[in-house]
Amino acid sequence: MAPKQEEGSFTEEDRTPVEEMTTLGQCRYCENDAKRMAPHKDGTGWVAICDEHEKEARDDDFVPEKDADPSVS
Length: 73
Ligand SMILES: [Zn+2]
Hints:
Layout: E1 36-39, E2 46-49, H1 54-59
Antiparallel strand pairs: 1-2
Residues 27, 29-30, 32, 49-50, 52-53 line the site of zinc ion (ZN).
């Protein structure tokens, strides 16, 4: 199952460079505060998403990370 190349709907400019890992800020798909990062499959960048838009991120070839373990301090 090689990943398909589906460029066009998502440009490089929509991604945050990996080097700039600061605050998550706003969800890529709505105006909610982002809850997690979603790195792109090709490793070129990531977007910040809220809990409601994990599916949308996956549809755009991003791989949402799991929530941080709240038991770890
Ligand atoms: Zn959202």
